[in-house]
Amino acid sequence: MFGKLDWSAIPISQPIPLITSIVIILVMLGVLGVVTVKGWWPYLWREWITTVDHKRIGIMYGLLGVVMLVRGFADAIMMRTQQAAAIGEAQGYLPPEHYNQIFSAHGTIMIFFAAMPLVIGFMNFLVPLQLGVRDVAFPTLNSVSFWLTASGALLVNASLFLGEFARTGWLPYPPLSEATYSPGVGVDYYLWAIQISGIGTLMTGINFVTTVLKMRCPGMSYLRMPMFTWTAFASSLIIVAVFPILTATLAMLTLDRYVGWHYFTNTAGGNPMMFMNLIWAWGHPEVYILVLPAFGIFSEIFSTFSGKPLFGYRSMVAATLFICIVAMMTWLHHFFTMGAGAAVNTAFGISTSVIAVGTGVKIYNWIFTMYGGRVRLTVPMLWSLGFVFTFVIGGMTGVLLAVPPADFLVHNSMFLVAHFHNVIVGGVVFALFAGLEFWFPKAFGFRLHEGWGKAAFWCAFFGFWVTFTPLYIVGLMGMTRRLQHVVVSAWAPWLYISVVGIVILILGAIAQVIQLLVSIRDREKLRDLTGDPWDGRSLEWATPSPPPFFNFAVMPNVEGEEPYWGIKLRAVETQQLSPEPAYEPIEMPVNSPVGFYTAFFASVFGFAMIWYIWWLAILALVAAYAGFAWFAWRDVHEFEVPVEEVARVDRARRAAREVFLTQLSSQEVLP
Amino acid sequence: MSDMGLPASVGAIRRVREDPHRLGHRAHGAGEDMEGTGHGTSGPATKRIIVGYGFWIFLLSDIVMFSCFFAAFAVQRGATAGGPSIGQIVDIRRVGFETAALLLSSYTCMLSFAATNRRNLLWTQVFLFVTGLLGLIFVLLELQEFIELAGKGITPQRSGMLTSFFGLVGLHGLHVTLGGVWLATMMAQVQIKGFRREIVHRLICFNLFWHALDIVWIGIFTIVYLIGSGA
Amino acid sequence: MSDIKSDPHRPALHRREDHAPGDEPLEDSGHWIYNANLGLGFSIVLTAAAFFLAGSHIIYGPSIPVALIVLAVAQMGVHLVFFLHITTGPDNTNNVLALAFGVLVVFLIGAGSIWIMDHLNQNMMPMDQMMQMQR
Question: How large is the ipTM?
């Protein structure tokens, strides 16, 4: 009746997952209780759960990413401390079966449920604003994408309380991940969670490719788009190109596990090495999906806080597209040691080294953007400078790894672990914090406290280097990755230093939380009244903070690069705003519960498949289809915003801008 | 495009400036600001273009997914584990009928859309129905093939080659089946709601889907069956 | 700048509009059916040729797979042009670029996988032979 599910699924004998699950369940119940008591459900349902507004969806992605980042970080703390505590005779506190689940969960959560949602959250919030349009190409599909991602996150977290997670690492290599060697539900949790959220991500990719190519405000040709939009576009192209590979490969593994097929088994003609080939054909472009928008964030920040247009805009665009294409030609460098021979290894080694050229172009352009500008060392700028230093070194270790003979020595050592954390933390995570500090006022209407922001940055910067430099060293000394117990006592001092680094990172995380709390408490003092707190250059800064749900009362007409900068300059020179436009009613898409509904049944379906509860799985599929068909039958797709409402909102914006204009002119700061 | 009365050189200069690599297909339009195209600076495209293009991108992603299954078949084509080889299990005659059915269904799908463009409900439905029928014939023939093979003990659990064969062909058949479900839904929607904008957009998407399935089938019958039969 | 141009439901006013693949809203049905007929005709010819070639001995044996692939690619092209209306006109640039991108990815995965996996088999004994050796 309940398939494989019975009471033994609850981890009574394992204190850490048990206590964590109980705490999480209590917190969730508490939150739901507070929401019910305060009567917030109608508001939440109407304004957030069923929203198709890209800005709200972006914020929800951000929330999901931050919560999962905390969980992934907790896994990291456990890993570092376990290794420091399990040297020589000592055994640490995590048995191998549990430790293996932790490092698998750490990678899975960090990539799929922290980094991806956060990056996609930024893309969601910013791209339509930067393009001067009202929403993405497929707003309801956007909602579906978010809720499917949340569904995947839910399933991964359910594994804490019911059953177990995969023990195979964040990419489940066969034969270990096949049913013979991983008969439990762990790998199945992974497969269904990733498969479901992967569909959501693919939909996002399609949405943004279409938005950027087919929906831009009048006058915005390709070469007038801001850099973040370009990188979001390139990232979306890669998503569309490679997420189907992930879907296909995981489906093949699922078929092997569930119905005994032989894609990757080591008997009857299966080929485990093909899994590595296909999964990395997805896996390498995946990191470029993450890093390209990160580069875009830095482009915006460098130009804004240097007070200059981005240096070499066209070469930036070319570099972005170059990286986009070459990213799909380098994947074998993840398995140089699998034995494809010199010719194949050399070809991919060359392509891997070549892709660094694109990034190099970008780094030089950012540096030249700062040169000759009036650099303001705000918190976003600090993160950006920290990024340049950190990422360049990480990239250099990457080019070292790109040389096959060198890789043979350090493949799957801690050197590798240090390298990829170097580029992911230094590149993606630093970008996410920089972007958070930069665009928070736009999203929420008030700035973040600067002092705590600087504290958080310095803790993160030093914390990162103190944590990971020792890992480079032990890697070169021969330590392999994923060790639950360390035999070589020479590595001990370095592992201890690494734990000190983790403590600094924890302090940084606390500082970040304090910054948020202090800023909320002081939000009236930190209020952004003009919509342009940083002297921005792209169209999102032309809107009030937060923007009205329709973004622009009238779509802007773009005449050059840096569209908003031109508008601002003209206003200052002529000492007046452009004349009040002729307002017209606006059509906006209606909200829809279909995203939430679909994801709900996707979660039920995934859970049922994991536990072999076939009747529930079928029921969930039927219900999902029924919901979708009901949605497809609706007659009302849009509602009209009356012209009085449009005019009222826009006149308030113009009044604030008049005040802003006076401030700008009196300061005489514009070049 | 009609610049009669001007010297030929003026037209030539304009053509070079607008289309220096002579890629433009003159029969289809001018070189001016095209709405909704890349250089288009005239604002967002219409919903019809947006929906159609978005679905085209989705289809390309679906074809990438198929290419993974093709790659698996190519890698595992010889992994017979002592069981039958691909040449021993293909039935060219039946594949011929399947191909004919699917190709004709693509044709009738085109005719149905011609009727849609003229807002002719009867012929839209007739040709959609024929398309669905031909698709059903295709799926039934394929099911028959699978059942016959299974009866002889030739199942995907037998070997890597059979896994990738059933996986690739089965994935395509699954797409055709789901397409059939979609087709039935569309026929119901067209009947009840008529040729509303959203319905026509969905028919555009369905057309794209159905033609793409035939394109994938060309790959399958060539690589798996025809080349395989020679193995 | 007024919002008239931003209305997503404004009908296509003139020929100079971008087209999604498989969609030619202003084409008359005579022209449409003519394209469909041509497409069907060419497809039938190419399919028949492929099936005929597969079992015959008209051309040098080992070149048959190559010939079949050429016929398949040609027929895919026929479908793209006649059924999906992919052309090289400026109203189709986005569609062609997207298609080219898709073809690139398919080529990388297909050819890349075959190249890589074949070399793995060269340097290492294939799995089933290895298992047999261990009996």
Answer: 0.94
